[in-house]
Amino acid sequence: MSQSKFQMNRRHFLAGTAGLGLASTLPGLARAQQNVSVTQFIWTGAQEPVPRRIAEEYVAANPHVSIDMIAGTNGATFPQLQASRDIDPEDPLLNLGFFNMDATERGKLVDMWLPITPDNVPAMANILPDYRQENDLGAFFCMDVCGLVYNTDYFDEAPDSWEILFDPALRGKVAMFDGFWPGNGLVSTALINGGSEDDIEPAMAIYEQAARDGQIHSLFTSNSQAQQLLVSGEVVVMPHFRGVALPWRNGGAPVNYAVPKEGQVAFPEGFQIVNGSTEAQLDVCYDLVSKSLEPENVLDYCQTAYVVPLMDNVDLPEDMAADPAISPEAITNAQKLDYAKIAANGPEWSRMWNRRVKANL
Amino acid sequence: MADIVLTAVDKVFGSDRVVSNVDLNVENGEFFSLLGPSGCGKTTTLRMIAGLETPTSGDVMIRGQRMNDVPINKRPTNLVFQKMALFPHLDVFENVAFGLRLKRLPGAEIKRKVGDILDVVSLTGFEKRAVSQLSGGQQQRVAIARALVNEPAVLLLDEPLGALDLKLQLHLQRELRRIQKATGTTFIYVTHNQAEALSMSDRLAVMNGGKIEQIGTPAEMYLKPATSFVASFIGRTNLIETRVDSIDGPSAALAVDGQTLSIPVDGLKTGDTALLSLRPERIEIRAPGAEGIDATVTEAEFMGSTVLYRMKTATDRTLMVQALADRAPLGQGDSARIGWAPDAAVQIRQTSVAEDME
Amino acid sequence: MSGVAASSLVAPGRTLPRWVRLALLIGPGFFLIVLPFFGAMVMLGTYSLNLRDANGMGMGLSLWMDFASDGFNWSVLWNSVRIAAISTLIAVALAYPVAAALMRVKSRAFLAFGYVALFSPLLMSMVSRAYGWLLLLSDNGFVNQTLGMLFGIDPIRLVFNETGVIIAIVHVVLPYAVLPILNNMTQVPSVYREAALDLGASGWTVFRRVTLPLTLPGVIVAAEIIFALSASAFVTPSLLGGGRVLTLSQLVYENIGMIEWGMAAVQAIVLLVTALAVLFVLERVNRATHAARES
Questions:
Q1: Is residue A6, in this structure, part of any structural domain at all?
Q2: Which residue of A128, A308, C145, C152 shows the fewest CB atoms closer than 10 Å?
Q3: What is the pLDDT of residues A176-205, one digit of tens each?
Q4: Is residue C294 predicted with pLDDT exceeding 70?
């Protein structure tokens, strides 16, 4: 006890002398607070600009805070985060991050997250009740949706059902995102075909047959691959994210997004605050989340990243409100997957996917 | 019959004329040396005979066949390289058998021929040795065997003993001579070592600045050098320029420090300047008071059987004098009487290309 | 004053102890390479034996048994080895003439161009390189369009399969293959070639009986480097394999993503040991060629 007290004292002492030193050299900052350094993880691409802007504004207003940014993907960053906490639970790789439900569920297994409650972040109360998390582990203020992304030159009419993926007329012209689809897509297909997160076999059998029949052109692993396949017409339809496809369309590519009648797959996204962060870091994290959840920031984020807001206080502009993918019915109708079960079953499904689908491509 | 005939051969690399207007005949069975300082064009000449270089102009004939356009691997010559170039991944037998295998001779014949040639170079029993296990002298004998086993019309040797120590050099010089006589093969031997060339060759050519200065037997080259370059490169000599005093029938009379000399007239007239080569061993140290001139020793170099003096005469001329070391040698500052027979000097031409000898 | 300073600078006999100097020499490399490597190996070992008991399966060899008893793992390992072996063969076969040509180039400008062209794959990010291959090799890509125009044939599947993966791997490893071979070639004096020619060998025979045996050590070093690189290649097969080319490196990545670190460790160790075994065999061949020279 005395030891920890001593460390606390010493830390304060050091911070104090540092503050004094700073105060003497920078007269304008005589009231310098204890310096805080926070690491924030954001997604690359269209999801980058808004969080960067918010962080810059925050640092400008709070000079004692510095924010390091890690831009990457959930798939690559989450394992690193978990490894860093395995090494030292008190020194995580990052303090605040943007995560999907998959990573969220994996993190819950190892006590990775801290709650984001309306006490800390009042705007949490504005998140749609369906998307509030148990114990407020995460601020899921938006979602991407996964539906049918297709080549507009090939289809005269937009495809309207997940069934199109298995249409024999499209043999060899369908592709899927390896690594993502074996989890979420399997469940989606299972739900439509009488299965569930607990009974994946109906879906697995369908994909195995599709692989054997040569239905699947390829399993891609990057968005640029998907774009190239779709734009060239080598692949004409694929299950993919609206948020990924719309920038292609708006860039002039013959690509569009369609909502399948069985429902899009909901893909909530939001903030997680990492256990092991210091009190001072947590304060900054709460501030950043609060700022990010301000309606104009949410809207800005949703517009730049082509995602759907999940807040009750965000007024959609007309063009967004008119989009069938964002309509309240579409959002209600969306397939909401049980990500806890997906995370738990992931390794087993992946094993089956490798052996039964990939091995038969 | 001439095995090798070079006619007006030139070789130009860029702006560098490394071989210039070379004419050469090498007779069948001859041990012929190309002697000269490094950069004189001797190795390039050899490589043109071997086929490793193509003459810029002129003809290379081997046994009456024009060879200019015949590639190296089709020429009836074999080359022993300065750096031996034994194949490090093959043993002695396979190195020697390399050329025979290319001719697809039957195995038994290869074995016999390799055995025979290893016997000639005294390496019987070394067949399975790796090249790296051999001494330098053994390696060189393998290299010679590897070339000779193909029974070339001409064996070309490019300073093959240069990398060896002196004692081994002397031993292998005799060996090479013996092998050449035993096989009757024509040898063309490139060297910068004048003693080696003199002792081994039937005839030799001295090259300088890409040109042949003189061709002849070792004795001719030494006793009757044609040019100042040859006179200085082969052995030592005193080069003396002096005026013709008088002509007497076939002889021209000259004087050096008052001591007369007589040379064949050869177109000289009274008052002409002649360049003479007076070998140090032709200058005698005489008894005090005998006919001759006085000179003072400025430097004495003890060479074993002889002593080489540098002596200054009354006219401030420095002469090299080589005397037998059969009595107490003179020391620096000693004076002695020196003189020479009237036929001690030969007339030579001034070499156009200046070459620093020492 | 200056004299005093000078004498203290050259103070005789006052050098650092030998072990300190050695430590200074190898220290940076040791900390940068050896320590992390062994650290990682120890970590992998503990994970593969489930010493952390993360999933309640109990410590021991259970993960290893899982791996070994599943034929799928072995077939994936075989994929990795086969792709690496084919890539190695092709890369070395392509690199050898390239090295020989670079040896002969005299023009400095042309040589510079050759090196830039050779090393250009390394200047690109792996992802953009893979994307470039897609543009070239896909059904509507440049290669298939050209073939279609010239011969009127249907597109040939050149990517999203093993062919595409091998093409892309060979492309990026080629410089690593050329360098050791080129280095070896520069160390073989041209006099060996001249000697063989002089003994009557044709150009081809010189190559087969002299140049190739003498440059074999460089070829083997190149093969070792390339095998190691292509057996562990991950981005190329996952981007260009289209899901059809399953390699052990991809299973490792997949398992890390799913926090199945124990199995990932087992697979990583298997991959490493396999690569080391192949390197060991190649090194024995290398030794044998040297030994033949010296025994």
A1: no
A2: C152
A3: 999 778 788 999 999 999 999 999 999 999
A4: no
* A222 touching C (Cβ < 8 Å): yes
* Total count of domains within chain B: 2
Q: Could you tell me the CATH number of the domain that includes residue B53?
A: 3.40.50.300
- For residue A345, pLDDT over 50 is answered with yes
Q: Which residues of chain B have pLDDT under 70?
A: 1, 352-358
Contact criterion met (CB < 8 Å) for C243 and A355: no
Matching residue, tokens 């981007």: C239
- Which CA distances in Å does A302 have to A268, A287, B34, B296, B345? 12, 20, 91, 111, 111
User: Do A202 and A297 share a domain, yes or no?
Assistant: no
Query: Is A126 in the same domain as A53?
Result: yes
Q: For position A169, which CATH number holds?
A: 3.40.190.10
| Pairwise CB contact (< 8 Å): A225 & C259 | no
Q: What is the pLDDT of residue C156?
A: 86
Tell me how far apart the alpha carbons of residues B257 and A30 are, in angstroms, rounded to a whole number: 106
Note the pLDDT tens digit of each residue in B17-55.
Answer: 999 999 999 999 999 999 999 999 999 999 999 999 999
DSSP symbols for B186-215: EEEEEES-HHHHHHH-SEEEEEETTEEEEE
pLDDT of residue B304: 87
Domain boundary among B230, B249, B276: B230
Among the three residues B198, B230, B262, which one is the final residue of a domain in this structure?
A: B230
Cβ-Cβ pairs closer than 8 A, B with C, add up to 69
A1 located within any domain: no
Q: Which of B71, B85, B89 sits opposite C293 (nearest CB)?
A: B89
Cβ contact, residue pair A225, C131, below 8 Å = yes
pLDDT, residue A8, reads 39
Range of the domain at B337: 236-348
CA dihedral sign, ordered A304, A306, A312, A316: positive
Residue B194 lies in a domain: yes
Touching subunits for chain C (3+ Cβ pairs under 8 A) = A, B
| A219 lies within 8 A of chain C by CB | yes
| C75 neighbourhood in chain A, CB within 8 Å | 359
Q: What CATH code is carried by the domain that includes residue C254? A: 1.10.3720.10
Does residue A281 lie in a domain region? yes
Task: Answer yes or no: is A17 within a domain.
Answer: no
Residue A316 gets which letter from DSSP? P
Q: What is the pLDDT of residue C293?
A: 61
Domain that holds residue C173: 70-294
Q: Are residues A50 and A62 in the same domain?
A: yes
Domain that holds residue A254: 146-264+336-360
Residues of C with CB below 8 A from A79's CB?
A: 256-257, 259
Can you tell me the distance from the alpha carbon of C170 to that of C94, in angstroms, rounded to the nearest whole number?
9
CB A335 within 8 A of CB A162: no
Give, in order, the Cα–Cα distances in Å from A82 to each of A217, B148, C53, C264, C265: 35, 75, 16, 15, 16
CATH of the domain at B277: 2.40.50.140
Between CA C250 and CA C235 the distance in angstroms is 8
Mutation for testing the C interface, residue in A84, A85, A361 having most C CBs under 10 Å: A361
Residue owning tokens 């190695």: C88
- Taking the CA of residue B184 and the nearest CA in chain C, the distance in Å comes to 20
Number of domains within chain A? 2
Give how many domains chain C has, as a whole number: 1
> Does the residue B354 lie in any domain?
no
C-alpha B17/C-alpha A61 separation (Å) is 81
Q: Which of B71, B87, B133 is facing C192, going by the closest CB pair? A: B87
With beta carbons less than 8 A apart as the criterion, state whether A283 and A50 touch: no
Distance from CA of B95 to the nearest CA of C (A): 10
